[in-house]
Amino acid sequence: MVFIGRENDLRQLEDCYRANKAQLVFVYGRRRVGKTETLTQFSRGKSTLFFAAQSATAEEQLASFSRLMFEAGAPAKDYLRQYPNWESALTELTRLPEPPDGGRRLIVFDEFPYLVKSDPSLPSVLQNLWDHTLRHANLMIVICGSAMSFIEKDLLSEKSPLYGRATGILKMTPMPYWDAVKFFPDYSAEDKALAYAILGGIPRYLEEFDPDESIGDNIKRHILRRIAPLYSEVEFLMHEELRETAKYNSVVRAIALGGTSLNEISTHTMIPNATVASYLTNLMELGIVKREFPVTAKIKERAKGTRGLYRIDDNFFRFWYSFVFPYRSELERGDEDGVYNRHIASVLHDFAGSPFEAMCREWMWRESMAGRLPFHAAEIGRWWDRTREIDVMAVDGSGKQAVMGECKFRSTPMNASMLNLLRDRASHTGIEHRSYVLFSLSGFERSLEELGEHDPDLRLVGIDQLFSEI
What we know:
Arc Repressor Mutant, subunit A, alpha/beta, 45% helix, Trna Endonuclease, Chain: A, domain 1
């Protein structure tokens, strides 16, 4: 399969590789986000030793690494069957034959947390060798892992032996929508938006859909069927990363049903607020849930633990908890056609409304970076008060200018009444200098297009424009 996206991540890794001094780079992110594929792509054309750790004993891990080192020409191959410990193994990195092109050697430890789990002394060993020998060698060492909390708390925090040694830290996030939809080059713009609304920006999920099948057939074949990997993906990840999965299921399901405040989630799950807050923190660390504040909220308000609204930040988790989790009994009997026809087909566009708004906010960031907004945006998000909401809002650093947007993923064109409603809501934000942008799946009525032609403070963005390249 052709490698898609990750240009910025690859560019930053390449900059590290071409630096004058030795590099110790940490690459991490949630499972399925594409770390291994990105590092594989990065390693092309480079003299690379790529070690993929597994869940095994320290002896088994060391034996596998020894074989890899000996195949790469490590001198110890002439007098050892296996390195006795990690210190001797890692010391030999500086004695590997020089690459044929005279360039830098790339060393990748994929799923490094597995190695530390089998031998907790490894970070201290690596720290000692880095301080005394490895940082003087012509090497780039990449430490990669999916256990995000472990990487952040046990390898990068102040208490870790490796604290302060990293020359680069790359946290990989899901693909932006404009890269994600490249998995479906022949889809219409509408179907691209639907596919992204269902799968999000996780490459492993995007690969599961067949670009030659319709959205409906893909949902039935690759999500609702019991044999499909995506059918059990959420449960697998939850069991892999979290304990008390039944309670976490209740929390995520509560958010999927519309519970957005801490009190609402607590009431729905019948779990005390403090306990729910702890669960939400763990889900946020995994990138499954996100806490939102109005885009104009001050730092003091954002610091309050009980404030903000929670939403599912992973599109596929949101789909799974909306349409797989509640209908498991029917799906276990093989009734994927019935579940799709009764519960999904008629509401799929409504479901896609929230991800479509997120796409529009990403588009706004892209426009800001390209200098196509009236100002450089300092914040982009949603805005709301007790009775009003604005889907997309970009504000400048002073908080005195804003671009405000309304998003509609519907089968009918937008009309002038929606602009009037947006202007009315905008008048309650306290921001004087305002311009507007309307996003629509199905275009705009002619009267609204005429307004856009004559009003410099109004932009109309159709679905095709969201997928146009910069």
